[in-house]
Amino acid sequence: MPREPGFSTLAIHAGAQPDLTTGARATPIYQTTSYVFENSEHAASLFGLKAFGNIYTRIMNPTQAVLEERLAALEQGTAAVAVASGHAAQLLVFHALMRPGDNFVAARRLYGGSINQFSHSFRNFGWEVRWGNTDEPESFDALIDERTRAIFIESLANPGGNFVDIEAVSNVAQRHGIPLIVDNTLATPYLVRPIEHGADIVIHSLTKFIGGHGNSMGGVVVDGGTFDWSKSGNYPMLSEARPEYGGMVLHETFGNFALAIAVRVLGLRDLGPSISPFNAFMILTGLETLPLRMQRHCDNAMKVAHWLAAHPKVAWVSYPGLPSDANHSLYRRHSPKGAGAVFTFGLKDGYEAGIRLVEGLALFSHLANIGDTRSLVIHPASATHRQLTDEQKRAAGAGSEVIRISVGIEDVADIIADLEQALNKA
Ligand SMILES: *Cc1c(COP(=O)(O)O)cnc(C)c1O
């Protein structure tokens, strides 16, 4: 038996091989919209899902396929579908699971963009979101009824950087016979592999740590292959005959990767948010160094969090790597390699000091993103959350004194020196 390759080996090699016609070692950018059929019979079998192959880049592309196979391997799923962005991944998952009038339960602590997508755009489709508190997974029970189709959480939650007890939430989902969807963007599979903890579906914004260089948008849906879509009849897209595919039932034909097939041949086909081959190539290149970068991100963040916690102008630091943090034991159990690189801290002086700090930082970039090689900072109260009332800001973890940072992979002494000079001015 050859040995099972390790995570760093998979991050470089999974899904890829030298190009069969040219010998190119790096995965080529297949910058094409369409693919020539061998003959009409071949065309017919591709369109009927009788054979697997390239038809049109809205649905699949060879550069994208390498990215998909690599992410499925790193997350230990059965298959994956790469799409245009993290939000597109969320849209396509729910498109496969929900009908008008259905609902899902989502963690209250989520990326702000996801809160918007779920509260407003999804409501227009007749999909209702119900907000739950992941600190008390048992409280999800009361939110679930016969029209609830899924639970959605982040493994490492924005903006405070808190680990969530995935097993505990998975137990609730299993008890109700619904799938658990985990957004693993902030942790990445280097720190946490949600499927090992009971998740059925994993989604990512590849825009963040996985691409890792702040230059390309992307998203992915990873099928865990764990959920029985035929059991309840509540997921007709997977368990009922598809007229356009000759009456095929996706779950019968494709078994433990039926969800990935539905996302591709119904979601991507009809809604259309495909990833460009160029972005798939950029993200594949980033992915090769994910283990190295993620370890450095976490090591730097740990040092920065300890330094901030001892600073006289800092009131509090929310970072699971600090022994005093309420989330510390979950981090030790769930993510022993590191505690992530995105977290918040509070200044003793409020709003004005927050503005002076973000404006005084020089190495840090003041912007609305995370998971770049560069260190990033935002003062949510004066930026992403400025339209909210003071009370809403506080509830969202964006009080006037709150600063969120995404610690980069520069020399940590330079990161700390920049914070020090800016705090002195604030
Ligand atoms: C950025 C982000 C998203 C959305 O991804 P996009 O690629 O920006 O569409 C979703 N979830 C989390 C946790 C994110 O950080």
Automatic annotation (TrEMBL):
Transmembrane segment boundaries: none
Keywords of the record: Pyridoxal phosphate, Transferase
EC number: 2.5.1.49
Gene3D superfamilies: Aspartate Aminotransferase, domain 1 (3.90.1150.10), Type I PLP-dependent aspartate aminotransferase-like (Major domain) (3.40.640.10)
InterPro entries, per the entry: Cys/Met-Metab_PyrdxlP-dep_enz, Cys_met_metab_PP, OAc-hSer/O-AcSer_sulfhydrylase, PyrdxlP-dep_Trfase, PyrdxlP-dep_Trfase_major, PyrdxlP-dep_Trfase_small
Names of required cofactors: pyridoxal 5'-phosphate
Transferase listed as a keyword: yes
Chain segments annotated as coiled-coil in the UniProt record: none
Keyword Transferase: yes
Top class in the EC scheme: transferase
Molecular function per GO: O-acetylhomoserine aminocarboxypropyltransferase activity
Any matching Pfam family: Cys_Met_Meta_PP
Similarity remark: Belongs to the trans-sulfuration enzymes family.
Name the record gives this protein: O-acetylhomoserine aminocarboxypropyltransferase
Species: Mesorhizobium liriopis
Lineage of origin: Bacteria, Pseudomonadati, Pseudomonadota, Alphaproteobacteria, Hyphomicrobiales
